[in-house]
Amino acid sequence: MTDFSVLDLAPVREGATPGDALRNARDLALHVEALGFQRFWLAEHHNMIGIASAATSVAIGYVAEGTSTIRVGAGGVMLPNHSPLVIAEQFGTLASLYPDRIDLGLGRAPGTDQRTMQALRRHPSVAENFPQDVLELQALLGPVQPGQAIQAVPGADTNVPLWILGSSLFGAQLAAMLGLPYAFASHFAPEALMSALDVYRENFKPSAQLSEPYAMVGVNVIAAETEAEAKYLFTTPQQQVTNLFRGTRGRLQPPIDDIEDYWSPVEKARVSAMQACSFVGTGDSVAAQLKPFIERTGADELMVAASIFDHGARKHSFEILSHAAKEL
């Protein structure tokens, strides 16, 4: 049985505000909670006018307060941007307010560009300390040890579940070594997916948190009542990634009638490769596409992203997916 969860970047649409995006995120979380999705994650990005979840722990608290049962967390916090103590305090606070509902996914990428890293007062070399920082954070969230001089308050002994996020073999190796669940970002970087899953499962060492490997796989799902409508809605994330390759950071754009008029053949090839783990269509066709993918990857859980411009259409896409998931 594969669980389904939601990754929401709190996208800021053209003509809307970050406040609108965050309110939509909370509304979507409440919606997918009722549909039976396992968890709802937000991600840390900086200096991006189309993403409103930069203050990730604040956004998580807002969503958690508006829901009651769904797990809410970070997918993820970019740990090199922070001290482990500050993250332990933030997520310890969240875990104290919303017990047994908070997840903490950790990435080692900066989630931004070099100039913004300087604005964050971080140096690129801090990413080299990622394994040690994960261990430090884990200790700060665990039981207080005799003689421990520094404690996270709140945070100590909250034992917030940690996840390692990645799109390469490095994260897979680290998650396996530490005995932590592993989430692969194949929704935008699918190339090393199968290799990373193999490395993770073959090298996994049981830990206090996890007795056997648990792999989450990121996918894009755009579902609608007709194939044509789903393909139309999908032109929004297709434009989004095309713009990323063009070095253009903007707000989420409305769908267009013909994506072929928007991108060049070279851009189409690059975007299509990046979005290879995308499943677009009606409920039946999405289910038919997902079934062999789940069998091939052995995913314990799918983390679903859906960059759909219209909020109502995005909610309906997850409704359709929830019915398709039951068929799987």
Which short descriptors sum up this protein?
328 residues; alpha/beta; TIM Barrel; 2 domains; eight-stranded parallel beta barrel; 44% helix; globular
* CATH third-tier fold name of the largest domain: TIM Barrel
Span from first to last CA? 8 Å
Q: Which class do the helix and strand fractions yield?
A: alpha/beta
As for the number of domains, it is: 2
Strand order of the largest sheet: 1-2-3-4-5-6-7-9
> What percentage of the residues does DSSP assign to strands (E)?
5-15%
Unreliable stretches covering 5 or more consecutive residues: none
Instruction: Report Rg.
Output: 19 Å
Largest sheet: 8 strands, parallel, barrel
CATH architecture classification name of the largest domain: Alpha-Beta Barrel
CATH class of the largest domain: Alpha Beta
CATH homologous superfamily assignment of the largest domain? Luciferase-like domain
As a percent range, the share of helical residues equals: 40-55%
Helix/strand order = EHEHEHEHHEHEHEHHEHEH
- The number of strands is 9
Number of helices: 11
Overall average pLDDT: 95
Shape: globular
